[in-house]
Amino acid sequence: MKVLLIGGTGTISSAVTRRAEQLGWQIYLLNRGSRKSEFKGPEFKHIECDIRNEDSKEIREKLIKALGGSGQFDAAADFFAFNTDHVKKDFEIFNRLCKQYIFISSASAYQKPLSSCVITESTPLANPYWKYSQEKIACEDYLVQMYRQEGFPITIVRPSHTYDERKIPVGIHGVKGSWQVLKRMIDGKPTIIHGDGTSLWTLTHNSDFAYAFARLMGNTHAVGEAVHITSDESVTWNQIYQIIANALNVELKPVHIASDLLAKCSQGIYDFKGSLLGDKAVSVIFDNTKIKRLVPDFCAKVRVDEGLKAAVNNILTNPELQEEDPQFDEWCDKVIAAQEKCVLI
Questions:
Q1: What would the pLDDT profile of 287-324 be if each residue is shown by its tens digit?
Q2: What is the C-alpha to C-alpha distance for residues 288 and 119, in angstroms, rounded to an integer?
Q3: pLDDT value, residue 234
Q4: Helices assigned H by DSSP within the chain
Q5: What is the CATH number of domain 163-203+233-287+302-344?
Q6: Which end of the chain, N or C, is less surrounded by CB atoms within 10 Å?
Q7: Is the CA virtual torsion 10, 302, 114, 174 positive or negative?
Q8: Handedness of CA 80, 81, 85, 91 (dihedral sign)
Q9: Contact criterion met (CB below 8 Å) for 248 and 204
Q10: CA distance 124 to 111
């Protein structure tokens, strides 16, 4: 298999790259080359290219050269396509150059509010709260059109909240990541949990996601299809935060604040309207029948408590992953104080 991965260092893409390496595939990594790659060896071919700023024809020529002047990629996956301009350019580059083009969409594109918390791939796509999700929907619409009109061999993959050992999945955090949430717990400070914490959520470890994703690559039954890849395990946000506190060996001091209030309080600072009202504040249970039909041996193996504990331990032992965020810490204190004043009225 010859696979092209645009990007390859993110939470999802790095796991897919590692899985492709394990399978012994020829892996072409296309990125700007702005930072040193962890992926080395004869199975890797690095193509230095700025896909968002270079001319489509020039990029296509680079890829043809990398292929030895002829042939096609068995699969090409773009992990950094976020709007229709991106996927239109991808079509110009990859049409007739790959046997399968995989677009990474998002499960946040599913209808909000949901008519049912059980989500299948036929659940309508509509998110009035989050521009990110709206643009992913527009990308899907364009690619489906190209599949129908031009025979462009697309597969659409919709991840939900996918994490690895470098990040802790929490409901809200600042621009510098989730470490400040953990630090508040360690320091004995109260932790904001959106809503009453009882909504159901699904977390998927990136190694589980990558296993299923790799089995979709080169899979003839996946062409023309849209599919989500998630764990079957559902947990509440209260459980998620308690697991994190247990891993830190500290007492959890939860403060529950309504999601719509958090969205209003974050205006001009954070986009919690999109990430909460358009995503994490809604109970979701994913029906994974379709991915299991396409990949019969897929079963998510990393349990939430085990995955989160491993991530917490990794972050605690790697100071470079502990980026403090005083602005978010101050914002949390102000919001909590404001709610306490309302309770006293």
A1: 999 999 999 999 999 999 999 999 999 999 999 999 99
A2: 9
A3: 95
A4: 11-22, 56-66, 84-94, 131-150, 179-186, 206-216, 237-248, 259-265, 272, 289-294, 304-316, 326-344
A5: 3.90.25.10
A6: C
A7: negative
A8: positive
A9: no
A10: 5
Specify the amino acid at residue 148: R
pLDDT at 240: 98
Is residue 46 within 8 A of residue 37, CB to CB? The reply is yes
For residues 249 and 58, is the Cβ–Cβ distance under 8 A? Answer: no
The CA distance from 319 to 176, in Å, is 14
For residue 125, the 8-state DSSP code is B
Query: Can you list the residues of the chain whose pLDDT is less than 50?
Result: 34
14-23, long-range: CB < 8 A, 24+ apart:
14/38, 14/164, 14/206, 15/164, 15/206, 15/207, 15/209, 15/210, 16/77, 16/79, 16/209, 16/210, 16/213, 16/214, 18/210, 19/207, 19/210, 19/211, 19/213, 19/214, 20/214, 20/217, 23/214
Fill in the DSSP letter of residue 69.
Answer: S
pLDDT single digits (tens) 96-108: 999 999 999 999 9
Q: Which two tokens stand for residue 333?
A: 């204190």
User: Please, where in the chain does CATH 3.90.25.10 lie?
Assistant: 163-203+233-287+302-344
Q: Is 102 exposed, middle or buried (0-12, 13-18, 19+ CB in 10 A)?
A: buried
Placement of tokens 């109260």 in the chain: 190
| Fold of the domain spanning 2-162+205-229 | Rossmann fold (3.40.50)
pLDDT digits (tens, 9 = 90+) for 219-229: 999 999 999 99
